[in-house]
Amino acid sequence: MKPPHRVPLALTATLGLGAAAAGVLLTAPAAGAALGSNWYASAPYLMPFDNSPPDPVAVMNATGQKAFQLAFILAPNAGGCSPTWDGTRPVGSDTEAAALIGRIRAAGGDVSVSVGGYGGTKLGQTCGTPAATAAAYQQVVTKYGLRAIDFDLEEPEYENAAAVHNELGAAQILQRDNPGLYVSVTTAGTSAGTGWFGQQMLNDAKSLGFTPNNYSIMPFDGGFNGGGSQVSALEAFHGLLMSTFGWDSGTAYAHEGVSMMNGRSDAGEYFRQADFGTVLDYATSHHLARYTYWSVNRDRQCPDPNQSTTSGTCSSVPQAPWEFTTYTARFAGATPPTTPPTSTPPTSTPTTTPPTGACAAPAWSASAVYTGGQLASYAGHTWKAQWWTQGETPGSAQVWQDQGACSGSTGTPPPGTCTAPAWSAGTAYTGGTVVSYQGHRWTARWWTQGDVPGNNAQDVWVDNGPC
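Below the sequence we write its predicted structure tokens.
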């Protein structure tokens, strides 16, 4: 039986696949419009048959996330080299996962199917060779018309060099036989970047001549303490990539990724919304190739939001529903960097010139959802969203780019005026939200309600100084 959460000793590969280029016959569900590889690089894990699965379409609508990694494909519990869901549901006769994938695609999204996971028997252990392992995975690709597949090799396979070799070899074969594959390989994270088995995996990949799009680590369950420690591990892993493959710094960053765990980890560590934000800032500023987490099933608040146990169905930290998934959506919207097209009003719609000093863009609203490229006005300036955002105040969040003062406006509010909305005890605030209280601006570090700014033992509110 699957445990309720993820164990860190893992090897993951995400393969983004253009089906037409690969010559794959697409069977039901039919593949929808292709997504950019940035969406497969951001796809968070979701278990469709365990851990009280949420409705992915509802999550898409709430967060803007477009891709998910459905878990897990294993060898049959009875043995053999044919793919099954969780060791019990043969892929060949499946209809339930196919219907779910069809719903996601109909809503404009797509999936990556994850093979492996913690526990159970992996195809790399039973298929015997890289070629046989690749042939088993190709059945999954063909069945679901996949453009992406995720290799998640954990215990007991992770320490089995022959099994890991079969998985790496299978990924290489799929990459070779399917031009345009987006390939990501993930290993356990430690404060030194990765451990002994992770380094052996890198060495094996080098000996195969296999270069995926990125290598990712999972910096949790290893004595980590928040986002700063995760960034430190990513920097250490960056050095290992340079020394192992002889890459320069820019090339190493461009082949590096991260897979996190939201809320309370297996080892009792805590990674809150602010920690996800810290790692997101690092990932986007260093142009990392992947940013994902385990799991969407856990991206909701427990009945007791501060329970001291790890759950497979909730995060064990205070949060709004699907709040952690908004971070992967932001990463997908910002990687690779894109320049949104300039919109031109229809010829039938007359254009008007705003009054001197007025802002032409609509006023920013804390409750509105903005996507990359949209404009809003705030405090006399025009701001452009770089990716999906909601509730993040222009001027206090990286997502907003200042386009300058509106025509004829200094953009400076009257002295002593607080432009942020006034704090309210009855309002629920998410991480990054800015409010005003007693003449100061305050930024929420994570979900909060009823916690008075300046009077909270958990320091949920950060004092940004007087207005």
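The chain is about 25% helix and 20% strand.
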